[in-house]
Amino acid sequence: xxxxxxxxxxxxxxxxxxxxxxxxxxxxxxxxxxxxxxxxxxxxxxxxxxxxxxxxxxxxxxxxxxxxxxxxxxxxxxxxxxxxxxxxxxxxxxxxxxxxxxxxxxxxxxxxxxxxxxxxxxxxxxxxxxxxxxxxxxxxxxxxxxxxxxxxxxxxxxxxxxxxxxxxxxxxxxxxxxxxxxxxxxxxxxxxxxxxxxxxxxxxxxxxxxxxxxxxxxxxxxxxxxxxxxxxxxxxxxxxxxxxxxxxxxxxxxxxxxxxxxxxxxxxxxxxxxxxxxxxxxxxxxxxxxxxxxxxxxxxxxxxxxxxxxxxxxxxxxxxxxxxxxxxxxxxxxxxxxxxxxxxxxxxxxxxxxxxxxxxxxxxxxxxxxx
Length: 371
Description:
By secondary structure, the protein is α/β, with parallel strands linked by helices. 49% of the residues lie in helices and 19% in strands. The strands form three sheets. It has a five-stranded parallel sheet, with helices on both faces. A five-stranded mixed sheet has the order 7-9-10-12-11, with helices on one face. Strands 6-8 form a two-stranded antiparallel ribbon. Helix 5 (111-178) packs antiparallel against helix 6 (184-214).
């Protein structure tokens, strides 16, 4: 059972304090005082939170405004209501400025108005406490994020040194081994070690790229550039994949200069072409186009093949996402499109994926030069 909120009623007339207690004792835990000095003593010794203070203005020794002002350092979150038998504007202004009151009511008070005002005041206090709790949770989450960022940085150091160093040694010694005279079986084993090592090195580089992007360490060297074709920049492995599947890469690119880091955008296009070739139908066309669109240039790459489910499109940009049912059979750690998205984010752009009747289309927009 939730504890009743506590309110403190202060008035130099005992009958008024008793009347306030009778009104609110069913709904709240009521504390009473007949002077500002006594009320301050109660606040000093009372260990629970006080949600609301209701005080008279005209009291001997200490006015209500003076009393409320003294409560601010110790009870800053408590809501305050001032009761006064006078409509002295100066007193009201003083109460608002010095005592930070929620509302003032004139005597004799209207019971309904007083009850409604107190209910709203308690709601305000409880909302403030809820906000304070949420802020603490946010602060804790922020500290956790900072810890995770530090962990990412440490992870980068670990991967960069502890994995790449021995992997480099493995690849170097395998290369030396393959230069010696090997029988057929030894040559097969060495080739498999080399190909697996190269694949592992690619995965390590991809992981480091994603982590650098997520931690804000990845930068872009943006310059005005007229995008040329990608055909001459394709890796040998990708050229072999396209040739093996008897696919055709068609390029229709405008020469409008765009603001890009050329190496990064070429990497984006290379990865998109690789996906199109890998998951596209054999003997099909991979079409890469660009169009002038307002203040930018839209790049579109489409291929004929299996469509991607809506669920997969939502999940596909998650780092390290793997689903064996997506696009027939996934190989790797699901980083390709994540890397594309990270690189495009540095260009204030984003990759979009759309299903078409006979395949899949991906597109993104780059800003024109000089705008």
